[in-house]
Amino acid sequence: MGRDMISELPDTLLLHIMSFMNTKYAVQTCVLSKRWNHLCKRLINLTYSPVPNLPKKIGIERFKKFASWVLSSRDHSCSLHNLGLHLCWTEPELLDKIIKYALFCNVQQLILDVYSGFRPDFQSLPLIFCSQSLTSLELSIAWNYALIVLPKSLHMPVLKNLHLQGGSATHELFSTCNLSFLEAVNIDVSWNGRWAEKSSIISSNIMRWLQVLANVKKLTFTSGYPFQIMLHDFSNPISVRPEPPSLVRLESLKVVKHFSVDVSDKEVNTLVEYLLRGSPMAKVHITRMA
Amino acid sequence: MKMMKPYVWLQTSDDSIQQVEQEIAMFCPLICQEIIQKGMGSSKNCAICLPQQVSPAMLSLILDYCRFHQVPGRSNKERKSYDEKFVRIDTERLCELTSAADSLQLKPLVDLTSRALARIIEGKTPEEIRDIFHLPDDLTENVEVEEEHVDDRSVDDLLSFINGNDGGKLNILTILIFVFT
């Protein structure tokens, strides 16, 4: 019989090893032996990623189990560094609770890739946008994004990375912000129904927001939709162009194009030039998706 | 005159002392601190005493790792493929290496071996993991008893538990059985 070398490692190393595992397997280590029994309560990275394409009912049940484990069994004195919810079906109340819990534990990285569950009266949503601990936030809300009203101000003093997907930009985006350390932004706003009618509102909202993001180094438009909306607005001779943003520290602008209408490279270039008027160091990467 | 390559003297857990190229040994933050802050390692008499976890065999492995990564101009692909081969060792040595690298504060190697161990554990049944690592099966009885116990508390109860309104303590095993099944 060989020696049980792994159990001789100190807790910190065992937890480090577990941090590289899918949370499901990391938590399952508690049935291995007495040595491992209580370790997973102190995991600081939790990732919930069920198999893709789960039916809604099963998905909700599964998330319920995950959430109850986190809320009841985790050692709440341990701070939570990362919480990632991927492809997640959930009930709104539970999602709200788990987000509040994460914020209460000073979560630093939060990924919310949620199918359902968000509601306009969400208590945790405004709390996210004034978190003192978050350094990275990825928010992706499918289907019912129209319900999400993003707060007008955003006070996240240590935030470095922000990825917004699915928020509605028909109302004003964050207009007052404390984002001193924000370096990378990826915007992928959506719209209610026929955006063409509202393109000038959305476009000027995005533009106004870009003006607030003066310190950003990396700017990405993943879907190209915000870009497309701005282009549409630019092609309208009667719309008044707002002041271009002044992204003085910008190093890279990435646009992934899968435009639904034909947009000429010339039009794209005009918009890029306009956006980058105040950005002497910026490199532009435009990728065209089939 | 021939240029002398600087060497450093290291003492491993079995009390043996050996000479090692300084620039390679300096890759380990712990050795680097001993040399720079304490002026240790310059002769056999003031050899740097390495932590208990570092046996001669482990030191030799760690220095191989440092020697490879210390050479400038290697491509990421080369480094990655070296790393992959480097951790293809039996699990006991992998554990020993993790512990030794950690004691020398060599973070990239700790991450590499930890990742490798995580990959071994992931996706396996508890029995398989116990077999691979020779873990004692000292919980099984407990689990069987717990399995019959169903936790029917609602999430609200669970939340109030966090808030301290509920004096009851939950056994992790009780819940686990229902967690990810």
Automatic annotation (TrEMBL), chain A:
Top-level taxon of the source organism: Eukaryota
InterPro entries: F-box-like_dom_sf, F-box_AtFBL13-like, F-box_dom
Residue span, F-box domain: 3-51
SUPFAM superfamilies given in the database record: F-box domain (SSF81383)
Matching PANTHER family: CYCLIN-LIKE F-BOX (PTHR32212), F-BOX_RNI_FBD-LIKE DOMAIN PROTEIN (PTHR32212:SF385)
Protein name (Swiss-Prot/TrEMBL): F-box domain-containing protein
Source organism: Vigna mungo
TrEMBL record, chain B:
Main location: nucleus
Pfam families documented for this protein: Skp1, Skp1_POZ
Pathway terms, separated by semicolons: Protein modification; protein ubiquitination
SKP1 component dimerisation domain: residues covered: 107-146
Gene Ontology cellular-component annotations: nucleus
UniProt-annotated location(s): Nucleus
Every SKP1 component POZ domain range: 8-70
Any one biological process term the GO annotation gives: ubiquitin-dependent protein catabolic process
Tagged with keyword Nucleus: yes
Keywords: Nucleus, Ubl conjugation pathway
InterPro entries: SKP1, SKP1-like, SKP1-like_dim_sf, SKP1/BTB/POZ_sf, Skp1_comp_dimer, Skp1_comp_POZ
Self-association and partners: Part of a SCF (SKP1-cullin-F-box) protein ligase complex.
Family affiliation: Belongs to the SKP1 family.
Role according to the record: Involved in ubiquitination and subsequent proteasomal degradation of target proteins. Together with CUL1, RBX1 and a F-box protein, it forms a SCF E3 ubiquitin ligase complex. The functional specificity of this complex depends on the type of F-box protein. In the SCF complex, it serves as an adapter that links the F-box protein to CUL1.
Protein name: SKP1-like protein
Organism: Vigna mungo (Black gram)
